C-alpha cells in the first residue's frame, strides 16, 4: 500500500470570441488538445470498483478507504502506464476547497499516479461550484457546469485525474480553465471511461453539422462553443432536431435536477 504524499506546487482553441478568453469561466472555448485523444483508463464500467469493500466509505470522503481501494485495484495499472506519462508532471483531480464528505477517490488516485510517475500533486486549484452529477442524465450534466479557481503554473504539464468519466464535461471544464490560464494538458487518467465514445474529440463531421444546424445556439444555451464539446456531448446534441427542442429538454432537466436533489435533502442555490 502506498503512503499519501501531497506536494504543493508553486505558482484545440476555438477561434471564435477570442476577446472573451480571460473572462471567468462563463464560456468554454478550449477543447481537449489533439494529442490527448482519450484518457488512460482501466474499466468501461464501475461495477468492479463498487464491489470493493471500501468503495462506499471512499466515495463518502474516507481517505484511508480510498487509499486501500486504489492500492488494491489501481497500482498495477498506474505502473503499466508510467512510461507513457511525462516527467515532472502536475497531477490534478477536480475537488472542492472544503472536501469533507466528498468523494476521496480522485485525489487519492492523483496522489498515487504522482508517486508512481515522479510528479507532484496540485491541491490549490479547486472546484468552486457543486454540480451533483451523480445520478444525473446527459442534459442535466450539460446544464450543471463546474467552475474552478486557483493559480495555474505557467507552462506546467498537467495530468488530469478522475475516478469516472461519462460525458467528459467536468474534465473538459478543467481543461479549459488550465489552458486559458497558461497551463498545458499532457494526459488524462480515469479508472472508468463510461462514455459511449471513448475518445474526447468529436468528429469534424459532427461539429460541422452542429454549427450548420444550430449556428450560435449551442454557445448561447450552454456557454460552450461547438468545437469545445466533448465527443459524447456533441453526439448527444446531434440527436435533437432543433434548438427549441434542446431548450425544452433543458428546462425539463433543470426541474428533474431540483427534484433529484430535494429527494436527497439538498437545496441547491440558484
Summarize it.
Helices cover 38% and strands 12% of the residues. With 270 residues, the protein is α/β, with parallel strands linked by helices. The chain has one domain (23-263): Rossmann fold (3-Layer(aba) Sandwich), CATH 3.40.50.2020.
Structure in words:
The protein has a single domain, classed as Rossmann fold. The protein has helices at residues 47-50, 55-59, 63-73, 75-81, 105-117, 138-143, 169-180, 204-214, 217-222, 231-237, 243-263; strands at 40-43, 90-92, 120-121, 126-127, 148-149, 157-165, 184-193. The protein has a five-stranded parallel sheet with strand order 1-7-6-2-3, sandwiched between helices. By secondary structure, the protein is of the alpha/beta class. The longest helix is centred in the C-terminal third of the chain and has 21 residues, at 243-263. The protein contains eleven helices and seven strands.
Amino acid at each position: 500500500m502506498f503512503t499519501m504524499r501531497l506536494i504543493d506546487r508553486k505558482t484545440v482553441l476555438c477561434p471564435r470570441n477570442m476577446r472573451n478568453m480571460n473572462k471567468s469561466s462563463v464560456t468554454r472555448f478550449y477543447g481537449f488538445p489533439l494529442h490527448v485523444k482519450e484518457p488512460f483508463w482501466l474499466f468501461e464500467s464501475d461495477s468492479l470498483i463498487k464491489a470493493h469493500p471500501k468503495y462506499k466509505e471512499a466515495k463518502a470522503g474516507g481517505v484511508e478507504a480510498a487509499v486501500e481501494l486504489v492500492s488494491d485495484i489501481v497500482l498495477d495499472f498506474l505502473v503499466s502506464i508510467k512510461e507513457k506519462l511525462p516527467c515532472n508532471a502536475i497531477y490534478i483531480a477536480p475537488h472542492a476547497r472544503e472536501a469533507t464528505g466528498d468523494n476521496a477517490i480522485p485525489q487519492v488516485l492523483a496522489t498515487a499516479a504522482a508517486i508512481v510517475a515522479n510528479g507532484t500533486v496540485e491541491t490549490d486549484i479547486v472546484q468552486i461550484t457543486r454540480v451533483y452529477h451523480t445520478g444525473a442524465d446527459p442534459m442535466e450534466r450539460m446544464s450543471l457546469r463546474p467552475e474552478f479557481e486557483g493559480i495555474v503554473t505557467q507552462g506546467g504539464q498537467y495530468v488530469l485525474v478522475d475516478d469516472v468519466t461519462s460525458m467528459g464535461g467536468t474534465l473538459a471544464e478543467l481543461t479549459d480553465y488550465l489552458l486559458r490560464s497558461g497551463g498545458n494538458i499532457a494526459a488524462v487518467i480515469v479508472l472508468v471511461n463510461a462514455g459511449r465514445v471513448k475518445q474526447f474529440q468529436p468528429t469534424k463531421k459532427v461539429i460541422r453539422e452542429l454549427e450548420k444546424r444550430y449556428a450560435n445556439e449551442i454557445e448561447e444555451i450552454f456557454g460552450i462553443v461547438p468545437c469545445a464539446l466533448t465527443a459524447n456531448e456533441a453526439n448527444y446534441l446531434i440527436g435533437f432536431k432543433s434548438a427549441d427542442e434542446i431548450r425544452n429538454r433543458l428546462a425539463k432537466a433543470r426541474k428533474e435536477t431540483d427534484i433529484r436533489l430535494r429527494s436527497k435533502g439538498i437545496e441547491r442555490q440558484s
